[in-house]
Amino acid sequence: QVQLVESGGGLVQAGGSLRLSCAASGRTFSRYVMGWFRQAPGKEREFLTFINWNSGSTYYADSAKGRFTISRDIAKNTVYLQMNSLKPEDTGVYYCAARSLTNVSYDFWGQGTQVTVSS
């Protein structure tokens, strides 16, 4: 059974940084893409970035370019989201998700971790 467990959220002042972690278990993810999404209060869930678990290649939405960096540690089966220069509008619940390379939609989701950026 696939499990994705996010951690690292919290309260941070504007301009600060946070690193989110997503511990993955339950299968080999070498043929998977791992993504990060967020959902702000009252808004739809928004895609931020993904990483190809095997190759390490990445893709960023415009809202994540320049301030967010996704990475993975294969030995630890963990994906990270480094967030710098945080803004109040980055506040929301951040979710880790996984999909196989052959799928368009994400098959597995974590429970989310809250990020609150104060002004």
Overall mean pLDDT stands at 96
Distance between the termini: 40 Å
Q: What's the main sheet like?
A: 7 strands, mixed
- The SSE order reads EEEEEEEEEEE
Category by helix and strand content = mainly beta
Number of helical segments? Answer: 0
- Total number of strands: 11
Helicity, as a percent range = under 10%
The gyration radius over C-alpha positions equals 13 Å
Cα shape: globular
Low-confidence stretches: none
Q: Percent of residues in beta strands?
A: over 45%
Characterize the structure shown.
By secondary structure, the chain is mainly β. 0% of the residues lie in helices and 55% in strands. The chain is built from no helices and eleven strands. The strands form two sheets. Strands 2, 4, 5, 6, 9, 10 and 11 form a seven-stranded mixed sheet that branches. It is globular and about 40 Å long. 34% of the residues are buried. The model has no long low-confidence stretch (mean pLDDT 96).
Descriptive keywords:
7-stranded mixed sheet; 4-stranded antiparallel sheet; mainly beta; 119 residues
Can I get a quick summary?
With 119 residues, the chain is mainly β. 0% of the residues lie in helices and 55% in strands.
Please specify the SSE layout and strand pairing.
Layout: E1 3-7, E2 10-13, E3 18-25, E4 32-39, E5 45-52, E6 58-60, E7 68-73, E8 78-83, E9 92-100, E10 108-109, E11 113-118
Parallel strand pairs: 2-11
Antiparallel strand pairs: 1-3, 3-8, 4-5, 4-9, 5-6, 7-8, 9-10, 9-11
